[in-house]
Amino acid sequence: MTLLNNFLADFLFMNEERADLLISSFFPMLEATILYTIPLATISFVIGLMIAIGIAVLRTGDSQTTIHRIMVIFAKIYVSLIRGTPLLVQIFIIFYGLPEIGIVLDPFPTAVIAFSLNIGAYASETVRAAILSIPKGQWEASYSIGMNYTQAFIRTIIPQAMRVSVPPLSNTFISTIKDTSLASLVLVTELFRVAQNVAAASYEFILVYSEAALIYWIICFVLAIGQQRLENRLSRHL
């Protein structure tokens, strides 16, 4: 109990020096958030979502050609590999492994590629499940007014599937914001990398990392509010 009291007292104790550290470290963290963390998460999510939609469409298509079947097999292998290995390992393979075969990438592109591939695999299952959840009657109704398969898919099925996908995809984006901290391990100067540098220089690990955690929480809290409003708006149109 004494140790706990001492810990709380040390953590809550705020002198002028620690206050200055909080203030001076906040703006570099905020800058890193704006310049790296948010762009990294956004770019990766957009690219990953495009990959996810492509794979989901491929796997739910009714074509029975040999090429289509081969592509489906490769898509399943891709999804299985990405979902079955840690994101950190994927980042390290791209950043440290590819140079062995002559492919050298800068830290930021490395992170974008790794996050995009990871999001694409996980989100593809979300989008695929959403497509399969649309009643067959929607297909039949589209065919009855003269649409072919492609037209029915684009005009009727996809819009409804994307509405269903909003909650899990929003959660994926929020998770991506937090996962960008892994990019610090390949020298991307995002929020957590800056926090590491400040903590290492000041030895105020609890204080600095708690400040970084607070910034992450604020971002995710704002995104969660936006997600809820988007869901409410979409639910009124269903």
UniProtKB/TrEMBL annotation:
InterPro entries given in the database record: AA_ABC_transptr_permease_3TM, ArtM/GltK/GlnP/TcyL/YhdX-like, MetI-like, MetI-like_sf
The family this protein is said to belong to: Belongs to the binding-protein-dependent transport system permease family. HisMQ subfamily.
Name of the featured protein: Cysteine ABC transporter permease
Domain of life per record: Bacteria
Membrane topology: Multi-pass membrane protein
One cellular-component annotation, GO: ATP-binding cassette (ABC) transporter complex
Entry annotated with the keyword Membrane: yes
Family annotation (Pfam families): BPD_transp_1
Family matches, as NCBIfam families: HEQRo_perm_3TM (TIGR01726)
